[in-house]
Structure formats: structure tokens, C-alpha cells
Design a protein that fits this description.
Structural class: alpha+beta
Oligomer: single chain
Largest sheet: 8 strands, antiparallel
Distance between the termini: 135 Å
Helix content: 40-55%
Strand content: 5-15%
Shape: rod-shaped
Number of helices: 9
Number of strands: 10
């Protein structure tokens, strides 16, 4: 058999391999404890088992225990001469057992708080992880400097949506600019753009963007100014005006229009010298010397049309028109003067 004291197995010396009728399976042989230590350990185990059995029997035999207690109380009362009835003894016993196991809530304090926290540690850990994750997400998305949903980033994106197209428009305009006037206009817009960016002036950038787009469209376009020579329309007029000295003088004007290479007539913005404001129009008067005016008038009077109508040319990339009509000397381009839009 198995020895619970030392855990060893002893073979039966009488078992031999030559005995065919006997099993070769080892047989456990009991042995006596070999030391006082083993004996004490066995006694401790036996004592613990006995006490556990007695406690269990006592708890299970509650009625018998109450009966014995009742007899002892009655005997004690009789010896002391105390007139106690059986009902009073039973009530005292019931009250005793009712209050035998009583739970008192511990006083609040750090130890109790830590104990409650330890009991609920898993729930607290889950809630803490959720809160921490929410705070990290809030910081990552909204609060850090480069957060994708922060107010600063959204403002930067909105600002870039205005500033970047403006910069690209100016670069395209600079790439095709072919005269000093165009380059000067681009440089001026670039300086104003830098100032608006430094001031975070989003509205100012929007205005500059519109001006840059208009400038680019102007540079990309090409047209020619021609003196109008259609039947029933005037090719020129003379009109009185006040010069810079306040003197009223006569002015001579050729009436022109802007035509694209495919013959379309463009609407242009003209600064009217008499109205002192910009006017959008399809035809206007260009002031010329009287000799040039008389030459064009004689040309038209000869056969009813103007043979030489080309007044100026605006090539792609140039900001200003280049005058090509001959001046007073017949060789150099004429000198341009005031422009008017009324009474044409």
C-alpha cells in the first residue's frame, strides 16, 4: 500500500519472476513512521480533522445544542433562585443566536476605500482605460498642435485654400509675362500677398486672388484695337474738354474696339477721362493728334471705309497694348492720349 508519511513503495520480497501464478505488479507495504517529526505531523492532521468534525457536528445539531443550553440555564436559575420561566429562557436563547453573527459596517477611511477599490479593481481598470483612451483621442484629434481637427489646423487649411491658389496664379502669370508692365504688376501683387499672409488676412487674400486671376486672364489673352469702319457708325469725333490747366480745348478721338484673332469683339474696362471712373464698354474713343485724325477722316471720305484700321496690338504675355498706327510723322507710332466712352 501507499505510505502517506514518506510516499514510498516497497516491493514484496516474496514475489519472484519465476512464479507464473503470481502477478508481477508491485505491492505497497505499510511501514511505521521512522522519526518523531513524522509522528507529530500525523498527530496534527488527526487533531485538525477531529476539530473540524466536532465543529460541523455542533453547527448541524443546533436543536440539541439549544436543548443543552436550555437545561444549563434552567439549572443555573434554579440554583440562584431566579424565577425565570421556560418561555423567557427560550426567548433569551433565540436572541443570543440572532445576535451571534452580526456585521458592523466599517468606518470610512483610506483603508476601507482601498479595500473597495481592490474588490472592484477590474471594473475600475476598464473604466480607467476607457477614460484614458477618450482623453488621448481628444488630445490627438483636437488639442495637440498638429491635431487634424484642431481649430488651428482647420484655420490653416482654410487659409491655405485661399493662399495656395493665389501663389500658383502669380507663378503662372510670371511664367508668361513678356513686358515690364506685366512683371511690375505681378511683383506688386506678390508683395501685397506676402503682407496679407503675414497678417493672416484671409479676406484680403481673397481680393488679391481675384485680381491675380484677372491679371492672368489678361496676360493669356491677345487682341487688336481697330478703328471702327462699319457703315452707319462713326470712326471718330471731336469733343471739347478741359485740360490740366482748366482751359477748355478741342480734342480729337478715333473710335476703336478690341477684336480677338477670330474676330470676336471684346468688352474692355476703360478709364473714362471725363467721368473719372472705370467703364466696361465694347467701344471707346482714343485721343490722337489732329493730323492723325484728319488723315483717318480723309481715308474714310475717299471710299466710305477706313483702309488702315489697326490702331494697337496686345500680344499674349503683355499687359499693355502696343500702339502700331503711325503718328504725325507717318513712321513712328502715334502718341496716345485721353479715353472717353460718352456720346460715341
Amino acid at each position: 500500500m501507499f505510505d502517506t508519511a514518506c510516499g514510498s513503495i516497497i516491493r514484496d520480497p516474496t514475489m519472484t519472476a519465476s512464479a507464473p501464478h503470481q502477478s508481477s505488479r508491485p505491492i505497497a507495504i505499510a511501514r511505521e513512521p521512522q522519526s518523531i517529526h513524522e509522528l507529530l505531523r500525523i498527530m496534527d492532521v488527526a487533531t485538525a480533522l477531529r476539530r473540524s468534525r466536532e465543529l460541523a457536528e455542533k453547527e448541524l445539531a443546533i436543536d440539541e445544542t439549544k436543548a443543552q443550553l436550555r437545561q444549563r440555564l434552567a439549572a443555573a436559575a434554579q440554583e440562584s433562585g431566579d424565577p425565570v420561566t421556560a418561555a423567557e429562557i427560550d426567548a433569551a436563547i433565540d436572541q443570543y443566536y440572532a445576535s451571534l453573527h452580526r456585521y458592523d459596517e466599517p468606518k470610512r477611511g483610506a483603508k476601507v476605500l482601498l479595500a473597495h477599490a481592490w474588490v472592484r479593481r477590474r471594473g475600475i481598470a476598464v473604466v480607467s482605460a476607457i477614460v484614458l483612451g477618450a482623453l488621448l483621442a481628444l488630445w490627438w484629434l483636437f488639442l495637440r498642435e498638429a491635431a487634424p481637427w484642431s481649430g488651428a489646423v482647420r484655420e490653416q487649411e482654410r487659409f491655405a485654400a485661399v493662399a495656395d491658389p493665389l501663389a500658383q496664379t502669380l507663378e503662372r502669370a510670371r511664367a508668361i509675362a513678356s513686358d515690364d508692365a506685366a512683371r511690375a504688376a505681378i511683383d506688386g501683387l506678390a508683395r501685397e500677398t506676402a503682407t496679407a499672409i503675414a497678417a493672416r488676412d484671409e479676406r484680403g487674400l481673397a481680393v488679391l486672388g481675384a485680381q491675380a486671376r484677372e491679371l492672368l486672364a489678361n496676360l493669356e489673352a491677345s487682341w487688336e484695337l481697330h478703328v471702327i469702319s462699319r457703315q452707319g457708325e462713326r470712326s471718330g469725333i471731336d469733343a471739347w474738354f478741359e485740360d490740366e490747366h482748366g482751359k477748355r480745348v478741342s480734342g480729337y478721338y478715333l473710335i476703336v474696339e478690341a477684336r480677338t484673332p477670330d474676330g470676336r469683339i471684346l468688352e474692355r474696362t476703360i478709364r473714362d477721362a471725363e467721368l473719372q471712373r472705370d467703364v466696361r464698354t465694347r467701344k471707346w474713343g482714343e485721343q490722337v493728334d489732329k493730323a492723325v485724325y484728319d488723315r483717318v477722316a480723309a481715308d474714310k471720305q475717299a471710299d466710305g471705309i477706313v483702309d488702315t484700321t489697326l490702331f494697337a496690338r496686345k500680344p499674349r504675355g503683355a499687359l499693355e497694348e502696343q500702339t502700331v498706327m503711325a503718328g504725325v510723322d507717318g513712321t513712328n507710332p502715334l502718341r496716345r492720349g485721353r479715353r472717353i466712352t460718352k456720346d460715341l
